[in-house]
């Protein structure tokens, strides 16, 4: 028990310390956390994944919910309007390319079931990695929004298609109707539900302020919404993202509607607490990922390394096709190529084929578990390099069509200014109270 208490205290300081390190050096804290998890777990045997029991999976899910909730709060409607179509474009093209190429390679030495599930399992970029990481990058707000939305969209694509295919393979039947419902109406219904729940919470905050003003009340409501919507067969992740987005954009409501809701659905105190919770959960989550890593067989590791290289090659193709040099600069383009990490969704899906008794499930899990740290390592290295001006200059031939400086954009007063985002802006209590 004493060791557990010491460990919990260290998690707090470790999360803050590594985030500070990332903000100063651009060395991703996420990679260091995974490395620490691997060292104290598989490498030394000090801690086993079985020691955490069900707690590890539960806390990982909570971490994803809190990260998505916070990401929604920080997403403005104007950014969404500008970035939704580019995000959908890079999501679909990137998903199709990596899934198609991986399937084509894997089918040469595995059966079609293994090839299909392995390819689909690689389809999503990690929200839990991308959203915290882009905060500290010196890229445009539009680019940050595109990459954050891409991670949410690809999660939906990957999870729905993977689960449908697992059910089809396990039962011996295939339903195109189930795939269509999962990707279309079900996703849309989840977004609408999230918006409705956001309006409901802002109404409850006004009518029952004494009961809803406690610290963590908003996060508790998000957890309840996720669990209830998942139980109802909807996409809980999209519900929470839409919930946070609604609470962060209530100023768009007409004046008559604002009379029925709280003017401060998320206070400065709540947001400060949310950030602290995010630190702790994120720290635990990536330590947990490190515990899941297994390097027992060389073939899956080698194949995973080849797949990771293909992931970033396909991202480069997507960026060159979809990112115009008139809108994005070289740093934007390089950061978009770098944001190809796989994370929680990949780790969770990797365990399902074995649980369902699908032949070849061990190979799928071994490859996907190896892809996670390798893809994060590549992301960490690329992110560190792209923030260096001299490195960007040396890669001019690879990104020759993108300017070094941010393109000029029109401002509201008709003048022109550069749109390079800064991520060091401090928030003040007046922003939320």
Order of helices and strands: HHHHHHHHHHHHHHHHHHHHEE
User: What would the average pLDDT be, to the nearest integer?
Assistant: 78
Poorly predicted runs are 409-433
User: Which second-level CATH architecture applies?
Assistant: Up-down Bundle
Number of strands: 2
Q: Under the CATH scheme, which class? A: Mainly Alpha
Helical/strand content category: mainly alpha
How far apart are the first and last residues' alpha carbons, in Å?
Answer: 40 Å
* Strand proportion: under 5%
Helix content: over 70%
Total domain count: 1
CATH topology: Na+/H+ antiporter like fold
- Taking Cα atoms only, what radius of gyration do you get, to the nearest Å? 22 Å
Number of helices: 20
Give a quick account of the main beta sheet: strands, pairing sense, barrel closure.
Answer: 2 strands, antiparallel
SSE blueprint and pairings:
Blueprint: H1 2-25, H2 29-43, H3 49-52, H4 55-73, H5 77-106, H6 112-121, H7 127-134, H8 141-171, H9 176-183, H10 185-207, H11 209-212, H12 217-231, H13 236-248, H14 255-258, H15 268-292, H16 298-322, H17 330-338, H18 344-355, H19 361-386, H20 389-394, E1 408-410, E2 416-418
Antiparallel strand pairs: 1-2
Helix pairs in contact: 1-2, 1-15, 2-15, 2-19, 4-7, 4-12, 4-13, 4-15, 5-6, 5-8, 5-16, 6-8, 6-19, 7-8, 8-9, 8-18, 9-10, 10-12, 10-13, 12-13, 16-17, 16-19, 17-19, 18-19
